[in-house]
Amino acid sequence: MCVLCVWFISVWCFLSPVFAGLGYAQPVIDAPVRVHAVDVLRLTPPPVRTRPLKAERAEEFPRLPDEPAERSVSVGTVTEGRVTGAARLPLPGQHYAVLPRQSTRHLIWATDGLIDAIIDAADEVAREFPGSILWLGNMGARHGGDILWSVSHNAGRDADIAFYTTDPFGNPVAPPDLLHYDRRGRSIEYGGYYRFDVPRNWALVRSLVHSPHVRVQYLFISEGLRSLLMEWARARGESDDTLTRAAALLNQPGGALPHDDHLHVRIYCGRFDIGGGCEDLGFVHGWIEDLSAVRDARVRQALALLRAQDAETRLRALRRIRFVQAAEHVGALRPLLNDPVPRIRQTAAASIASLGSSAQTSWLVQRWEDESDPEVRSAILRAIGQLGGTAGVSFLVAILDGPMVVTIRQKPLDLRVVAIDALAVALSPAAAEQLASMLNDDVAEVRVRALRALRLITNREGMDVCPRSSGMTGLPELSAHWSEWIEATPCGSRREWLDAGFARAGYDTGGRGVTRARALATAAGDERWWVRVNAQKELMRMSSHEPQSLLWSASDARSYWQRWVRRNAHRIRN
User: Fold this and answer.
1) What one-character DSSP code corresponds to residue 212?
2) CA 466, 467, 471, 475: dihedral to nearest 10 degrees?
3) Comparing C-alpha atoms, which of 89, 93, 79 is closest to residue 110?
4) Can you tell me the distance from the alpha carbon of 145 to that of 79, in angstroms, rounded to the nearest whole number?
5) Buried/exposed code over 61-90 (b: 16+ C-beta within 10 A; e: otherwise)
6) Following DSSP, what letter does each residue of 218-259 receive, concatenated?
7) pLDDT at 6
8) CB 264 within 8 A of CB 149
9) Is residue 35, in this structure, part of any structural domain at all?
10) Which one, 256, 298, 349, 523, has least CB within 10 Å?
11) Where a domain ends, among 274, 299, 333?
């Protein structure tokens, strides 16, 4: 038996480099027999989950006349942003590949700079260690936005990279998946069979630290693995500059998993991104150039172009100011509410709603009086609902006094429907009584939207009656039911109605801060749509974090928010 063991090990030592060179991971049978049940469970890939509703394609980036059309642009933050014109990781690669499980997700998109930095790093490691393959995990979706497996990776500036790995004999091998490593660099899975390859992983880090393509902000990694890398770098005599930067970039993230199974690369906004609305979060290292002047220059350029003779140029400049979120210049958008081109007036209303506050409601109300284009009037109503405020809600309620039918794209539309939807966005209890009276309206669509708005505002279902069921006769019983409830249950603030509704649904949201957020995160997956929508809207208000979770399935929304609250408790306010 001992002779057989020696023969087996000898053959294995001979064949292992061959398999590694071909890029194959070693099969489980080749690992030590002592694999614990928990390791098997951890390595079993979960079923691929997809959302029933995908986020809409990102809005086309409004490039100014001197900007190249082919450049990628990262917009917003890594947790709430998106990317337009994203670069696709070229596959197959000579010195890199995507892990099998992650390849099914097609998350191989990022900014031009990040893609170039990763390819260069893989090439550099392969030059120093011939035959090396860099295995990649999640990067981002084609148009950015939220992904199920992370709370970041939204804006094309994040990438997960598997660690370079060896077998127990030091032979390079491909990892079967993202493997967790202990402080000694041995895999927790497979009984410690796989080893963290310190020399190659340091070569990867060194390349990223000095990449000419990007400005690296973080290289997230566990403390134990960081120590292995830094000790190796010091022992081999790396320069003080390289050691200083690597020590600052390599971090175990707070409030998140320790990153002992992959290197998470995050880069700062690039020079082109800064001028397009890119926003960095977190620490800024001392060697990073301040690019705020680039943003200011692009904003000044866009403001000047608002007066351009060409309508398309004016439109792009207007949209660019919104992309950059230049709220300090919202006043410059007011004249465009009187632009001769309806599409520009429509975009101006939406942009003022995005950048302004209820103080700008009077601009929109004034424009409403003179506006004749039905699509612009519809946009003004939506904008007023988004701005909210007492004056805005009062104006929208007044719109409900009588039918206001217009034709948009050859189809009739009662603008009262738009006003009701705007009130549903404003979420003001002051509108509840008027909405209750609309349940007795002759128009079925008005009744449908009114009931929807009431359920959102009050966080209760009310009578289980189909508002379309009575044809053109109205629903006086349902209207009376809601009116009586509103009169008997006055609220000093909407939170009273919210928390009462959550309590009826079985959630205790009476606490404060993180305690309340945890209950809301659970309610975000409730089967009643108004409960889960209100829970998510409250979470967004408390965290200033607005993912596209309202478009996801209930289970995905709950899973996402529970994880987000757990990892970002410091960002929750009352």
Assistant:
1) S
2) 110
3) 89
4) 8
5) bbbeeebeeebbbbbbbbbbbbbbbbbebe
6) EEE--HHHHHHHHHHHHHTT--HHHHHHHHHHEEPPTTS---
7) 41
8) no
9) yes
10) 256
11) 274
Note whether residue 98 is domain-resident: yes
Contacts with 515 (C-beta within 8 Å, 6 or more apart), sequence order: none
Indicate whether 385 belongs to any domain. Answer: no
Instruction: Point out which residues pair with 411 in neighbouring strands.
Output: 408
State the CATH number of the domain containing residue 79.
Answer: 3.30.1380.10
Residue 10, C-beta contacts closer than 8 angstroms, at least 6 positions apart: none
Compute the distance between CA of residue 426 and CA of residue 214 in angstroms, rounded to an integer.
Answer: 41
pLDDT at 374: 95
Sequence letter at residue 567? R
From CA 256, how far away is CA 568, in angstroms rounded? Answer: 8
Q: Say which DSSP state 52 is in.
A: S
- Tokens matching residue 95: 């010195």
Question: What is the domain range of residue 158?
Answer: 22-44+71-274
User: Of 226, 250, 274, which marks where a domain is finished?
Assistant: 274
Q: What's residue 24's pLDDT? A: 35
The 10s digit of each residue's pLDDT in 36-86 is 222 322 233 333 333 333 333 456 889 999 999 889 999 999 988 999 999
Residue 405: φ, ψ to 5°: -85, 130
Tell me the H-state helices in 129-191: none
Question: Could you tell me if residue 185 is left (phi over 0), alpha (psi between -120 and 50 degrees) or otherwise beta?
Answer: left
Structural domain contains residue 512:
yes
Q: Residue 458: what pLDDT?
A: 96
Distance CA(139)–CA(155), nearest Å, equals 10
Angle at alpha carbon of residue 481, lines to 476 and 487, rounded to 5° = 120
Name the DSSP class of 278: B
CA dist 6 and 450 (Å) reads 79
The DSSP H or E segment spanning 458 is helix 444-458
Check residue 284 and give left, alpha or beta (phi > 0: left; psi -120 to 50: alpha): beta
For residue 127, which phi and psi values (nearest 5 degrees)? -70, -40
3-state secondary structure of 172: strand
Task: Give strand ranges (E) for 285-328.
Answer: none
- pTM here is 0.80
**Sign of the CA dihedral with 61 first, then 66, 72, and 77 last:** negative
Residues of the chain with confidence (pLDDT) below 70 = 1-59, 255-257, 464-474
- CA 494, CA 499: separation in Å to the nearest integer? 9
Q: Where are the beta strands (DSSP E) in 300-362?
A: none
Element (H, E) at 414: strand 411-414
CA dihedral 508, 510, 516, 521 (to 10 degrees): 40
pLDDT at 474: 65
Q: Domain tally for the chain?
A: 2
